[in-house]
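Morning F.,

Quick status update on the modeling queue. The single chain you submitted on Monday has been processed. Sequence for confirmation:
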Amino acid sequence: MSDQPQDLSFKVLSLLSKERGVYGLRNGDHERYRKHCGNKLQRLRHGTGLTSGKKGYKKPAEVTLATVKDVKHLQLLLFSAERALAHSHELKSALTRPNPPVGVSKKDQLSWLRRAHKYSSSLHSISSALASSSRMTQQTLAEITIYHLSLSSELSFERSNWADAITSLAVRRRLLSTFAEAARDSYDQALALEFMDAYDPLIRFAAYKLGRAESHDIPAVVADIDGEMQEEALPGVEKLVEGLRAELGSQEVEEGRRKLEDVKFAGEAIEMRSAEMVGVMTKVQAAMEAMEGKGRGMRGWDKVLGVLGEAEAVARRLVDDHEASGASNPLRSAETSRSLAQTHQYIIHLLLTHRIRRDLLLAETLRSTSKTLPSDITRFKVPGGRAKLEEAVKTLAGLIKLYDQVLQSLGQVKGLGLVQEREEVRVGVEGLESYYQATSRNLLLARLHTIHPTPSYSSAIRLLARSSSLTQQARSSLFETGPIAEPITSATETDLSALESDISALEKAAKRALFAERVDKPVFFDNAFNYVEMPMEELVYRAGKGPKPAAPSEGTGGVAAVAEVVGQVAGKKAQELEKEQIAGQGKKGWLGGWFGRG
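Structure tokens below.
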């Protein structure tokens, strides 16, 4: 039995994406990722036996082509380069602070970057030899080559060697474009785009430094790098690209790649450039398809809303991490930022749309199962006694609460930037908001005012008057401005006409009930009580519940008392005036009044 060579292939880009995302590198925490790489190296050394000794330090054996027997040997080199790269980025981030720490210099940062490049060069040379002996696939070799070119271009970039940097970046982008075009599923395609976007700002900045007028157009800059220049940066690049295309089967890409359906909003494609986001959206689409296949039960709605909630949390975390990494990486990809923001808002729109539809379904179910509400909206008396009346009030209160949730979700949808930027979407959302506000907050609340045990017909009339203007706004937005893009739910002209007729009928009935209502006006005695002193003793005597009050000494006693008080006040004022006149006869003017006498 002949020994077959062991396959040492593994998913390099996927492994790096997961490790970096989980252990802090996504939000710029280079120290945490460096410590994680150190711990992972220790575990790999124990697994491969390449330790540094137990009692005293012993330099571990180097990984060479002859000693490579397992994938862990290759991962040992990979994470050695990752740890050195994280250390270099940590020092670079420290140098960009306003008060950099003492003892940290640009030389130290470049030293760690050169060490990372040394490990990647060793990994690339060993992988090339393994691929030539059929012990590694072309895909793994291409991914390791992409990683090696990333470090090589970054080292040239830090040394301000713009020509070498842009050439290495062009070769790297070509390999990633091949992966994206020939990817067998949406995850691999998004993974390639994610790594491509990470280094696109370096291409733009290097082209700017070289004086390229089209530095903003990355495909045009890369197209200027011809085959000879790419061959100088990476010998054998044409052979590697052809082998990668043959292995991936580029001609069959359309059959196996589209697991994730095209995501569009208002006719425009939403591009997913994050591998993690693609995986979440695949689950969302699967849940939505399952709900449509099994019917629209509450379990199906809850499952879809749960999956959408998880997707929104992942998208929000990706956006926050990308924004947080701006301090340590000012050259962020604009395409990645725009893609993450659009994807996040699209998922929020999906979540709110399905929540609105679920609430409307609950409201329709509650309305159809209720047997206490009169079918005639103009009837204010609920037959069946007090119990049926309380049940009808609770039903209307539940309907109002559900429609308030719908209005709250519509307000959140209207506030999304993805909706505000598109007029045909925003107008439709505003029309639905006016329609359901007229339905719930006004019509149902007005009906609750009319059937309540203590009705308030005036409040109902005010609500219904507001509903008439809301229905006009809804008709103008939904049916008179043109076609509506991304409709959340269907509201036809028939439904709007039926709503208008119900509002008119209920308003007329409420006005008739208000005019027919008898209101007992307060007698004059109740108003006069606040201004005239009541003779309580006389009233008690006349009622036979007390003795006869004592008669006043004089009939004009009250007038005499008032006259006496007025006389006292006038006497005091006369005395004060006399004192002022006496005091005024003293010294006047200058020098005792010599110049003040006439």
